[in-house]
Amino acid sequence: MTDPLAREEVTVDRLVGDWRIHQLRRGHRFSTDDLLTAWTAVRALPGARRLLDLGSGIGSVGLSVLWHLPPDARMVAVEAQAISHALCRRTVALNGLADRVELRLADLRDPEAIPEAERGTWELVTGSPPYIPVGKGLISPHPQRAHARIELRGDVFDYCRAAARALAPGGRFCFCHAAGDPRPERAVEAAGLRLLWRQDVVFRRGRPPTIALFACAWEGERQDRPPVVVREADGAWTEAYRRVRAELAAPT
What CATH number should be reported for the domain holding residue 234? Predict the structure, then answer.
């Protein structure tokens, strides 16, 4: 079998705590979106022991959450791209997580990605869907970057349907999406879930929000949270965002 990383330059970088992550120097790299999605999930259900990360990419969201869960927590990561799957496999080995993490090379839209016996059993589900529809943005020539940005393998409706198949009673599904896109709230409702809160993310003070964070469940009343501002007008991290990073044990 051809190694999907054979011609790629890979870096090893700090993720959270003492865990490090493999990522391509010139491919898709983990971002503030991933960090804030993980932060949302940790706050939503900090005692979860069964974590499912949909469209996990290089594992940055799911592993950032897992670091904060109880020591007996386990994670399954579902990812369709061979190159991202291979990077995540290296990361799992590097951090000695083989007994806590199962990696599945599968499309989350495929019902077999979440077998019948596992449906309705996951306490915490995370996802960071691409949010640019096909035809609405330039498709990167690098396939990893392309799939991370453009909805080439499904959209937020697909993520919400997969999460609903997996989510246990009392569980939480957390994800991020474009702040100006009305589809996430429609997708949550279409999947039969309830939105517990939405929290907009402002990347530079004084500008409109760029992304939004969503926490969902089967039941509950919606109570939106105030926006997170990442940087001041001069570009410096805000004190609030520094606290987020400290909470997650991310590099500061």
Answer: 3.40.50.150
**In the chain, how many domains are there?**
1
Query: Which domain range does residue 208 map to?
Result: 10-247
pLDDT tens per residue across all 252 residues of the chain:
567 887 889 999 999 999 999 999 988 899 999 999 999 999 999 999 999 999 999 999 999 999 999 999 999 999 999 999 999 999 999 999 999 999 999 999 999 999 999 999 999 999 998 777 777 777 777 776 766 677 677 899 999 999 999 999 999 999 999 999 999 999 999 999 999 999 999 999 999 999 999 999 999 999 999 999 999 999 999 999 999 999 999 998
Could you give phi then psi for residue 66, rounded to 5 degrees?
-55, -35
Report helix, strand or coil for 87: helix
Closest CA to 90 of 144, 12, 163: 12
